[in-house]
Write a structure and sequence with these properties.
Elements: E1 4-9, H1 23-34, H2 36-46, E2 51-54, H3 66-78, E3 83-86, H4 97-106, E4 111-113, E5 120-123, E6 126-131, E7 156-162, H5 182-185, E8 190-194, E9 200-203, E10 206-208, E11 224-230, E12 238-243, E13 248-256, H6 262-267, E14 280-290, H7 292-305, E15 311-321, H8 325-331, H9 335-348, H10 356-381
Parallel strand pairs: 1-2, 2-3, 3-4, 6-7, 7-8, 8-10, 13-14, 14-15
Antiparallel strand pairs: 1-11, 5-6, 9-10, 11-12
Helix pairs in contact: 7-10, 8-9, 8-10, 9-10
Length: 382
Amino acid sequence: MPPFRFLHTSDLHLGKRFGRFEEETRIALQQARQDILPRLAALARDKQVSHILIAGDTFDTETPSDRVQRQALAAMGAANDLNWWIIPGNHDSAAAEPLWAAISSHAPDNVHLLMSPEPVEMAPGVVLLPAPCSHRFTGRDLTAWMDGCATTADQLRIGLAHGGVVDFGSEGGDGETISPRRSGLARLDYLALGDWHGSLRVDDRTYYSGTPEADRFKHAGRGKCLLVELAASAQVPQVETLEVGQYHWHDVALDLTPTTDIAAAMDGLLPPDRSEWRFHLLRIRATGWATPPQRLVLDQSIARLAPEFCQLDLVAEGLGTEHHVDDLDLIGLGGALRVAAEELMHAANNTATSQEDPAVASAALNRLFAYVQADSDAEDRS
């Protein structure tokens, strides 16, 4: 038989709310997640495959809205030249009977819901062995049944499952983790897994696809899926990682010293194509030490650039401030502001107090410096 090729994806989490983001960012990420199905379909056509395997967590919860459900089915149905093979995951487990009953009643013919652990011939000479999540916490390895499932010698065997893989011989293993030896024990040509949101190779025949639309900084870059090609059973599958997500996620470090050129350091962190910044979420973790003028330039840079990004955040808990007497001259040479600044500087440098007090004083001094500089800039423009 000719090689069998398909796309492996998982963890679409349609309907995810992204509640920790501001409204504009939240709406953009929700829309990108709903649009991932047409992008997967376009990629499948481009790669000349007609099957897409979704290894669980198509939906973010067991109670997605009717809108999320029906629009997902409409998108898959519109790609009627493709076959979509879906198992419930832990977020949208089979225990959510109203969800899957509704999906089943509206699903087009090219959407195949795999609700039972039994073999399905997905194409001539190709058998799919699904392990749908029956509940959010199953307490057992749902792929174990694959070991005893008989197929003919000339058939390709593809496993489809959702859950974590750890070595049963190691500490921390529990009953519901998937055996890392499952592909060998069950004579699988390929085991398509979901649950981990980054692409991950477990062994030559076992892979996590990762989510096609990234949803956290933990997995950097754009969302991905896998293009898999299976030939004869004895051959190792050919697996190619493909970027398909719309949004790029970056978590970058910015280590500062009092001599750092802030503008140059920031430029080195920014994506090269400015017209694409709207599709980037960038979290900058500032560490080290900076002077008040440096901190002001850093904060101003973030405020100036943030509107061009989907999200741009500065995390500065690890950034200390190095105060100098010369900095106080920029606040004032005398008067009440100078007295206040000197008191704050003394408190910021006082290591005899609790760790929180110097930090509060340092932040207040930085804010005072920013206010004074803002007033000075306003006077220069008037």
